[in-house]
Amino acid sequence: MKALSLWQPYASLWAVGLKRFETRHWSTNYRGPLAVHAAKNRTMKEYCEDLIYGSDGERLDPWGGLLIAGVACPDECFGVFGMASMPAGCVIAIGNLIAVWPTSDPKFRDHMKALIDIGACDPREEEFGDFGPDRFAWELSTPKILMPPVMVAGRQGLFSLPQGWLCDGREAA
Hints:
Layout: E1 2-6, H1 10-15, E2 21-24, E3 32-38, H2 44-53, E4 66-68, E5 71-73, E6 90-102, H3 106-117, E7 136-151, E8 158-160
Parallel strand pairs: 1-3
Antiparallel strand pairs: 1-8, 2-7, 3-6, 4-5, 6-7
């Protein structure tokens, strides 16, 4: 199975369906099942400081959610995985990569607006990514959370998970 590593809180936002698009500076022709890997990108001390204080020294965003790495993180991202914080260094969900859109394509903007209008996309979507020029929006549908998350080493880019990575027979919830 293919996987993509994302830093927190983006991995959890994508896994719980609050973030439908992950933006990258590169595209892919791959479509199909995609594991959402939460990257282990910070020291535990840095991660805990962000959880407690937020990256800019403020604990709460204007909507009352926690700020992590400067991103307003809704409460739906916490407690989902049976942990007080968001997991890192593991696969947390499996979804389907259904499209990759150039962010400058007017059809993409119309598509995202239509999804927001019908409630299939969070109105804060653009706050959760870089939708600037020369970027690509990877669209994930039907994410299913893995309980508990599966510890797997991540990599940069789109990568293949090792054979037997989900060897206990569980399925995504």
